[in-house]
Amino acid sequence: MLYSRLMSGLLAAIVLTQVGCGARGPEMGDVTGTVTYKGKPLHTGTITFIPEEEGLPLAYAEIQSDGVYEGFTEEFGKGVPVGKHRIMIMAVQENGPEAAAIALLPPKYGSDRQSGLTAEVVGGENKIDFTLK
Questions:
Q1: φ, ψ for residue 119 (rounded to 5)?
Q2: pLDDT band at 24 (very low <50, low <70, confident <90, very high)
Q3: 122, 33, 44: which is closest to 85 by C-alpha?
Q4: Dihedral angle computed from the Cα positions of residues 34, 86, 124 and 47, in that order, rounded to the nearest 10 degrees
Q5: Rounded to an integer, what is the distance from CA 43 to the centroid of its chain?
Q6: Which residues are 51's β-sheet partners?
Q7: Predicted structure pTM score
Q8: What is the DSSP letter of 52?
């Protein structure tokens, strides 16, 4: 009896994990764009896409020297899960091992709850620019 319940629970868990995200993961959209701060491209930093729907993976982007970025997830590679996301952007200027790094953006942009930045990702290509002031 106990063995039967354990096997039923295990089978249910396997089915739920297969149905939840599928073998290829959640539906993704390709996301690229540019980040500007005070009218100029931000030359470094990271963007984090925090999905509003539970169970979806976080997505990230590294900002290039021209302000351009491309989103990806650690689990599924290129792309950002489809849906609404809260955004946080962090950028610092490194000053070597002896000096402290300097934040390049106001602290509010480093919090998904305070940045005021959002993104809605759809399947296919998405160009989402972030204009920071």
A1: -150, 140
A2: confident
A3: 122
A4: 40
A5: 19
A6: 85
A7: 0.80
A8: S
